[in-house]
Amino acid sequence: MTSQATRVLVLNSGSSSVKYQLLDMRDGTRLAVGLVERIGERASRLVHTPSGGGAEKRERTERIADHEQALKAVAGELARDGIGLDSPELAAIGHRVVHGGPEFSAPTLIDDAVLAEIERLVPLAPLHNPANITGIRTARALRPDLPQVAVFDTAFHSTMPEDAARYAIDTGTADAHRIRRYGFHGTSHAYVSRRAAELLGRPPEELNLIVLHLGNGASASAVAGGRCVDTSMGLTPLEGLVMGTRSGDIDPAVVFHLERVAGMGTDEIDELLNKKSGLMGLCGDNDMREILRRVDGGDAAATLAFGIYIHRLKKYIGAYYAVLGRVDAVVFTAGVGENAAPVRAAAIAGLGGLGLVVDAELNAVRSGEPRLVSPGHARVAVAVVPTDEEMEIARGTFALVDA
Ligand code: AMP
């Protein structure tokens, strides 16, 4: 790598999509942001937005057969802007990988052995890791000489103590099948806890934080001194909070009941709990904007869904308060956490006894910046910190190749 190589291409490969960002780690500039979706369909779509200089967003719809074609199309768009994959300024490609299992606790330089390890983890994330692997293979074929780094959604949570990470099931069975709580959204929880410390003007090592990542998927984490000590997602992203379409915590016996009494098959139940539950299952909508509109209009199903969502959130805030013993800040992030003031207000309402209060005026401010929404005198800060998972992936990638 040459010393002028400061750019990182971040790739987030899904089964039929690739999201990408090109970042310059000298100053954190975003040079391009884009997305290829509906890969393999007749009308795939590529949207490419070069940053700065008033450059226009470019969009095209055509058949993009596979991930290789998709990445070549992305490379073409970047080359058009003079920031192609062959540029000496490109230091590395950082890949989002959903499941790092027990093996990976930090960003990892990819070689054949690492790729084989990630493949071994496919049974733990059958929907996500195969697409991530395809992205890695394709990018390696395109630039075999360039360092490629895997950044895992689970890694930040690998510091969880066994008390928090283990399920209370037979140890032999758990170990044989690598069943434990891994947690997800780790890049977001890591980024947001660091930015929250900056906002509070204190070193992360001194702070105890509860981070609430509330997007379409949602997770909470308890972070002590910059290290995760508990998180709400488990073996899979199904555990924990009520989400857009996922149930979050339920009695596992509901599954047996659905099998024995409702006659449902495993795949059907999987789909029910992951795709047809949560806010969607409760009221037919998973977009919090629509739910808040319906709540305002007095809609009973949306009001109940909102109530269940908030109740679960409060339970996790209380649980993590107890896990941490002392809390310096509760931090909201992701689509709902950053934008839905009524969710923040309702989640914190009634928690004055824990030192948690939201200032209505500050909470109503719309901004893309990290900010406090608690009054100055509050014992515990309540903050909103926009997440940036791509920046965190680029940071982890660059730190490894710039060493
Ligand atoms: P994410 O998964 O972080 O992209 O979050 C997506 C979700 O954020 C959407 O499904 C919406 O429910 C929610 N969201 C986005 N913007 C708003 C908004 N202005 N008000 C309420 N919810 C929002």
Automatic annotation (TrEMBL):
It holds the Pfam family Acetate_kinase. It catalyses: acetate + ATP = acetyl phosphate + ADP. It is found in: Cytoplasm. Keywords: ATP-binding, Cytoplasm, Kinase, Magnesium, Metal-binding, Nucleotide-binding, Transferase. HAMAP family: Acetate_kinase (MF_00020). Belongs to the acetokinase family. This is Acetate kinase. It comes from Streptomyces camponoticapitis. The gene is ackA.
